[in-house]
Amino acid sequence: MKPAKNIDRLIEIMAALRTPVTGCPWDLEQNFETIKPYTLEEAYEVADAIERGDLDDLRDELGDLLLQVVFHARMAEEQGEFGFGEVVEAITTKMIRRHPHVFAVSDADDPVKVKKQWDEIKTEEKRERAERRVKRGITEDFKAGHLGSVPRALPALIEALKLQQQAAKVGFDWSEPEPILDKIEEEIGEFRAALKSGDKAKIADELGDLIFAAVNIGRHVGVEPEMAVRGTNTKFRRRFAHIEQSLDANGESLDEATLERMEELWQEAKGR
Fold first, then answer.
1. pLDDT at 153 over 90
2. Who is most buried in 36, 119, 178, 257, counting CB within 10 A?
3. pLDDT digits (tens, 9 = 90+) for 114-127
4. Is residue 241's pLDDT more than 90?
5. Are the CB atoms for 73 and 87 separated by under 8 Å?
6. Is residue 258 a contact partner of residue 243, using CB atoms and an 8 Å limit?
7. CA distances (Å), 257 to each of 67, 253, 263, in order?
8. How many CB atoms lie within 10 A of CB 38?
9. How far apart are CA 61 and CA 221, in angstroms?
């Protein structure tokens, strides 16, 4: 197997990795749910490369993201649903359909008319999507109702914030921050109980409730939670880098350092 610029080679590689017995044990045990976090991660890696203006990284990260598409398509094909070809057909059909002013006949000759035409086509696509969902027996539709305008594809913290903002528009909201702090205390208690139970599903559920409540308090005090966490991540990076640099300067190893030693340097970094 040799590298190639043709997408067919990537599809062949994924097929080989997913072939029972001779394939890769790790790839073979994956499913849509287990691969989903990697798909999100690769999308963020693409965004990061763009933000840094690193086109070499962008090329590589786009390849990693493409691999995710091929991976999902392969698993769907194994279930008799669709393959990579159908994925390509679906998006090319959509792009041609949404641009009749380019690929067909249309009087949309300015941005306003193009936008109106785009919205009309998307409305028709949503109707067709709803019909397909009914045929598959899918009854739950997160795109319906008052919260339907909040995309599920958003990062979780941003989705939580927007859900709360949307609910607040119809009065489903706390009037002040203090009750939310009480709610956070309540959620901490429930999380402690879940930890004692050892039930991983319950632990995950209660942790989600706790984080959701934390997002709510941020909204009420005017702090954007995604940016707050990104700030904390940056702070953590800097303080941990101080631990590494200090250990190295003293001829100590990060792998061999005790928790007490690292905590000492952490507190030192906090005081800087």
1. no
2. 257
3. 788 778 887 887 77
4. yes
5. yes
6. no
7. 38, 6, 10
8. 15
9. 37
Would you state the structure tokens that stand for residue 85, as one six-digit string?
């070809």
Q: For residue 201, count other CB atoms closer than 10 A to its CB.
A: 9
- Dihedrals phi, psi of 132, to nearest 5 degrees: -65, -40
pLDDT for 4: 82
Region 15-37: mean pLDDT is: 95
SS3 of the chain: the string is: CCCCCCHHHHHHHHHHHCCCCCCCHHHHCCCHHHHHHHHHHHHHHHHHHHHHCCHHHHHHHHHHHHHHHHHHHHHHHHCCCCCHHHHHHHHHHHHHHHCHHHHCCCCCCCHHHHHHHHHHHHHHHHHHHHHHHHHCCCCCCCCCCCCCCCCCCCCHHHHHHHHHHHHHCCCCCCCCCHHHHHHHHHHHHHHHHHHHHCCHHHHHHHHHHHHHHHHHHHHHCCCCHHHHHHHHHHHHHHHHHHHHHHHHHCCCCCCCCCHHHHHHHHHHHHCC
212: nearest Cα among 234, 235, 191 = 191
- Burial label for 258, CB within 10 Å (0-12, 13-18, 19+), is exposed
- Distance, in Å, from the CA atom of 20 to the CA atom of 237, rounded to the nearest integer, reads 41
For 23, phi then psi, to 5°, come to -80, -170
Place of tokens 């044990």: 25
Summarize pLDDT for 31-83 with one digit per residue, the tens.
999 999 899 889 989 988 998 899 999 999 999 999 999 999 999 999 999 99
Q: Is the dihedral of CA 27, 32, 96, 61 positive or negative?
A: negative
Residues across the chain: 272
